[in-house]
Amino acid sequence: MFALVIGIDNYASDNIQSLHGSVADARAFKAYLTDTLLTPEDHIMILENAFATRIAIMDGLRRLAADPRIGTGDPVIIFYAGHGSRARVVTNKQSTEATTNVPVILPSDVLGPSRGDNIVQPIPYYVIDALLGDIAQRKGNNVVLVLDSCFSSASKGTHPKSSFVRAVDLPPNFCFHADTEHEHLLQSPFFSLSSYVLLSACSSSGQAWERDGRGVFTFALLDLLCTMSIVELRYSDAIMLLDIDSTFTQSPYCLGRNQGKLLFSLTPPPYEHRFLVPIRTRLMKDSPVEYVLSGGEAHGLAAGDEFEVYPDLDYPHRDGTLAITKLGSFYSVLQPLEKIVPISRNSIAKKAQHGRRELLHIYSRPEDDVRKILLLLEDEDKSMSNIVAVNNANDAHLIISMQQDNVVIVELTTIMAVQLSFQIEVRVEDLAPILLASSNFFSSMKLVSEDDSLTEDVQIELYRLPLDFPAPKPLTLNVGRPLQDRVVLDRGSHYDLRITNQSQHDLYPIVEVFHLNHELQHDILYHPGYGHSVLDCPLQRGHSLSVNFDTFCPPIEEHMAFLKFTFSTRPLDPLYDSQTLRSARRLPEKFEGRWATISKLLISRSPERKTLGEQEYQEK
């Protein structure tokens, strides 16, 4: 593990108010790295106050990218506590008129004298984004940015006298020129959040506060990390479980393609890692009080699913078991199986047993006795209960055949009506992970909702980016085209998906790729951030969202994958706004929302293998 830790209380400019807890936060974070995570001292660069200049911060980020000690996949952490702001930026050096407004962080020497008649500029977030992307490109995308700062107005809101907001308003006439190296990023339609995870003290419109000599966010984050085991803790869980003083209208959030991975790793959590919030409330004003769960059809739940209820996350003994009897889009109604189940303010529910859902069909020859293996596996892992053996190979998704020396051949035959011919050779003792991956892949692919009234006004277009992207020049896109049901792409090219919301709803999209190969790889291209209760909607009505991806480059001539879009009218995280749910006298209307999915088949081929019709379509 390697880290760059920055804390700034004192600024050289008299125009910037001092802070009182940023350095203390930086030292506490460094102590967590060394004392709890046992990170060697020489793996950590720390910059405080006058040492945290613009040059030093930029140089520190570049040194991480170039450090030969950092291996591919090693965790790299950047922590910043200090002021943020927004600044007007000029992209044309011949102009003095600011063309855009960008978030920035403030080094300790900002607004101070620089070479010539210039002053030291703030560091735009898009530059930090580019430097983190460079670290990820060289060292792997196990990169985390912890940001205890904010970019909204410092004059917004009031709090106790000992509290300070970590943002300042720059002088009204201040603007700066984008440097030549990074100017093209202003025109890029996306940040490289595929490269790192952002843990932020607040949303883009929120505020980060400090009180009693510490940052509210950093104090809560370190308190959580020091008191809970992080072995099975996701980045998103860390944000959702923070205990933030309700005095502060501050809502930390998490963003990035790897936000669902386990802390400081690229490891996905167990498939059934999720826990949900159980409550006792009414569905309508005069209806009876019932058990309600903060998850429904959109979360892959099914009638008959059983959940064990615990008084809090760390308590080892359950209070009882509930089973789903009715499903909504974002909630479920349950009944107790044994006795009345007490529900407390901190109760959580963990899935214990699968109910009725679409099954993964497996065929094997009668003499192979694979059915017995399936029964043994189901006894060990209840998540395999949706895998069943069938009597006809034509009805199977997987065909399993026993070979000599305890070897099993697994053949994938069909997924979503697409015929496949992939084979995997494993030993019997390694069959369980293959079947579990197949089951999870199949379940995620089949989690669909057809709501044309929600998706008919969502436009999805595909753009091909320059082959040398990203390049230090203005970004130019080819003419976008509507995404068809079957799309042939150039293997190795860069693409941009442009999603435009012309509906009457603000939408929270998820974009996933399901690779139809022997690994059954499942990638998340885009997922909205996670936040307590205030989450910026990424696809507001009348607006667009861009998602970048590279075509898959396996060492074969052709590769197929499904591109799946999920659109919902509220965040799909079942813990989102959980405090509102826990205190509700009846189910809030927002839990009655809608969701819909769209799936497209992608075929990645080398250009020379395209048919004439496909070539014409691609180049339009």
Q: Can you walk through the features of this model?
A:
The protein is of the alpha+beta class. It folds into 4 domains: 2-255, Rossmann fold (3-Layer(aba) Sandwich), CATH 3.40.50; 275-353, Elongation Factor Tu (Ef-tu), domain 3 (Beta Barrel), CATH 2.40.30; 360-446, no CATH class; 452-605, Coagulation Factor XIII, Chain A, domain 1 (Distorted Sandwich), CATH 2.70.50. The chain has a 7-stranded mixed sheet, sandwiched between helices. Strands 14-20-17-18-19-16-15 form a 7-stranded antiparallel sheet, with no helix packed on it. A 5-stranded mixed sheet has the order 22-21-23-24-25. It is globular, with a radius of gyration of 26 Å. The relative contact order is 0.09. The model is unreliable at 154-162, 187-191, 471-481 and 612-620 (pLDDT under 50).
Strand composition percent: 25-35%
CATH topology (level 3) name of the largest domain: Rossmann fold
- Can you tell me the number of structural domains? 4
**Span of the ends, CA to CA:** 47 Å
Question: For the CA atoms, what is the radius of gyration?
Answer: 26 Å
Count of helical regions: 10
**Do you know the CATH architecture of the largest domain?**
3-Layer(aba) Sandwich
Strand order of the largest sheet: 2-1-3-7-10-13-32
User: Which residue ranges are poorly predicted, with pLDDT under 50 across at least 5 consecutive positions?
Assistant: 154-162, 187-191, 471-481, 612-620
> In total, how many beta strands?
35
Mean pLDDT: 81
What is the overall silhouette? globular
Estimated structural class: alpha+beta
Report the sheet with the most strands, covering strand number, pairing sense and barrel closure: 7 strands, mixed
Instruction: Provide the helix percentage.
Output: 10-25%
CATH class of the largest domain: Alpha Beta
Domain Peptidase C14 caspase: 2-226
Keywords: Apoptosis, Hydrolase, Protease, Thiol protease
InterPro entries: Caspase-like_dom_sf, Pept_C14_caspase
Organism: Gymnopilus dilepis
